[in-house]
Structure formats: C-alpha cells, structure tokens
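User: Before I run my own analysis I want an independent prediction to cross-check against. Here's the chain; please return only the structure tokens and, at the end, one sentence I can use as a sanity check.
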Amino acid sequence: MKILIVGGSGGIGSSLVSTCLDYYPESNIIATYNTHPGNIHHPRLQWRKLDVTIEEDIENLSSELGAIDLLINAVGFLHSGSQKPEKTIKEFDPTFFQHNININTLPSILLAKHFMTSLRSNKATHFVALSAKIGSIEDNKIGGWLSYRVAKSALNMAIKTIAIEWSLKVPNCCIILFHPGTTDTHLSKPFQKNLPDGQLHSAKHTAEALLATINSSAPADTGKFISYNGSEIPW
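Assistant: Structure tokens:
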C-alpha cells in the first residue's frame, strides 16, 4: 500500500503519518513538507519537499510516485503572525483572502488534476481533503471569518465537482472531505480559550477518526463531507 500525506509535517499531518505507520504495517508512506521535514523517522517513511501552490512541483511528484492507494491533503491556513480571521468586512484584505485561496483551495484541485491517473485502479483507492464545517453554507449562522469561510466553501464545491467527474472516470476512487473539528494544533491555539469542555481534541484523535472514516468508506461514498464524529455535514 502506498500512501501520500501532503502537509505531513503539520499538527494533524504529523499525527496522520505516525498513525498510518501503525494502522497500515505493510504500507510505504510519502509525506511532504514545505519548510522543514517532520521529526518522525521510519524505514517505511520518505519525506519530500513540496510547494503545494506550484503546479509543476505537484506534477513532478505525481510522475515520480506513480500509482498510489491513498492521498490525504492535510495542508491548511487560518491565520498568520500578523493577521487573524476577519471579525467584520471592514477587516477584509485582498492579499490575506488570496493567501487563503492559495493554501486552502488550490492545492486539492492541483493534486486531483495530477494524481487522477495515480489513483485509477481496479481496487478501491481514496482521495481525502481536510476541509472545515465553517465552509458549509447551510451551517453558517454567525458570519465572520470571511476569507477562511470562502476558501473552504470553494474547496467543498471543487471536491464535490471532482467527485462527480471521477465517479465515471475513476470509479474505484472514493473522494472524501473531512472536517477535523477543533484540533489542538498551532492553527487553533489563538482560539482555544473560550471553547466549551470537550470541544478541543488531540491531533491523534483526529488522525484516528480520519482513518476510521477511510476504512469504512467505499467508492459508493464518494463526494461525502464527513465530520470527525462520523456525521455527514450539509453543504
């Protein structure tokens, strides 16, 4: 089994790497990083540098890896050191908005474009993108966080569209959007203070929930938006 974890050095990504090594003892795992490789080392693990915003980099990686069984995109962006999600439209900044699109939306589309052939198989394969419930239009009741919401909503539409196409062209590949919930990583740190008890969970818990979702999903489930608790999220 060959597994590609894009963003494997991040909070959720690194937990996915270690959990996959345990869950799939016969697997070979390729994990990507942007700046520094993760601190996990294993004979079945290979680290590869990848800029997910550069199409040529993704195309080259797909050509080198060939057929794979599972692709998980764990890359995401919510805030920078100088800018937090918008509380009001008056805080909207086009550059911040475009960065959200570049990191939260574009990479999954490029990965799908160039790994489509790699995921075509006579047996079941999986393509998973981490999204967020906040990208659900139906679930939006309080507003705010405009750039992040729009980027995740665009991701959701892109994956839904790709899933429809692949149901004909890559019929054995199950495409899933996964909502990790509020996971204890650097991405959620500035927003953990007033969370209700039980809402924050570990990256390991998120990784285990995602792998449980993958292991219980078949090609017939393609195009679903699934939460870490197993429930299906409305679009």
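Sanity check: The chain has six helices and nine strands.
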